[in-house]
Amino acid sequence: MTNNNNQFNLASVLxxxxxxxxxxxxxxxxxxxEMMIKRAGKIGIDWRGNVEQLRALDWNEIxxxxxxxxxxxxxxxxxxxxAYPEGNLDWEPAWEVETAALTVHSTIWxxxxxxxxxxxxxxxxxxxxxxxxxxxxxxxxxxxxxxxxGMSTMALHGIYPRAxxxxxxxxxxxxxxAQHRAEEKKLEIRWIHALxxxxxxxxxxxxxxxxxxxxxxxxQKPTLEILQESYRLLKPGGYxxxxxxxxxxxxxxxxxxxxxxxxxxxxxxxxxYFTLDFGATVTKAGFAEPTIISNSxxxxxxxxxxxx
Length: 308
Ligand SMILES: C[S@@+](CC[C@H](N)C(=O)[O-])C[C@H]1O[C@@H](n2cnc3c(N)ncnc32)[C@H](O)[C@@H]1O
Fold this sequence. Notes:
Blueprint: H1 2-19, H2 22-42, H3 47-55, H4 60-66, H5 91-104, H6 119-134, E1 141-145, H7 151-159, E2 164-169, H8 172-184, E3 189-193, E4 206-212, H9 220-233, E5 234-245, H10 250-253, H11 257-264, H12 270-275, H13 278-284, E6 291-296, E7 299-305
Parallel strand pairs: 1-2, 1-4, 2-3, 4-5
Antiparallel strand pairs: 5-7, 6-7
Helix pairs in contact: 1-11, 2-5, 3-5, 5-8
The structure holds S-adenosylmethionine.
């Protein structure tokens, strides 16, 4: 066992060193990308075709109507994410992220050899089943923080069609795609370009603040700040809910260290997320003891109420 561990740790250090060499990191990125595009093809998704459709549109007007130019991006946000050098602040990731989400989530239940096109829908559904189970009164006003291109916001509309929905994100590129998709679907959703830790929105104005796959992208300090801001935004008795990677799942606990290192090379704050006691941070922000439920082989849902 110790020998195995030593080998994994050595492999992990080697992977990390090798990824520090720029041309090699670029090559690894290119190969990982080609693998994803191939997997998308396997589940019947035309990755390049989807991206070209979005690329062909005129985005100037839409981004200018959404972007808050007075915003300053925190340093933790301007790092490369998901192998995109500009992280979340560029068109390429904005045009690719829907297709990428369907592809990445296609193996959650079925494994790498047998990807399924409905893995993403299943993941969202498993979260929503917990929302419906633990939140007794149907929320009338919902804030989706880290909404990206609006997949989570529009999915929430699916289960709470009467609620007023607001999607908030720090990337004006993602929000532009979100607005475009909402217009296509004729959905009335308010999109806000802001920091989740200081939204500028009115206190006690939401019944539910939801965050789907946001927190693994954050260091621990903004995580607490976002929970405190969520508390401020919620009405008494309102709920905070999140769905994200589950560090306690067997998949991550048994993942070879060098694979985890590869994963971390695309997710710069994963270590901070994995080592945070999320439940304790939720109560530190003022919420009641949260309910934590595993909702996929590698994801968890956390739900907590703001006391009356
Ligand atoms: C993985 S994506 C979320 C995916 C999305 N909710 C969905 O269901 O497809 C994480 C999002 O969080 C956003 N984000 C990260 N830090 C943020 C912050 N401090 N404030 C607002 N948004 C943030 C990123 O721009 C990105 O769009």
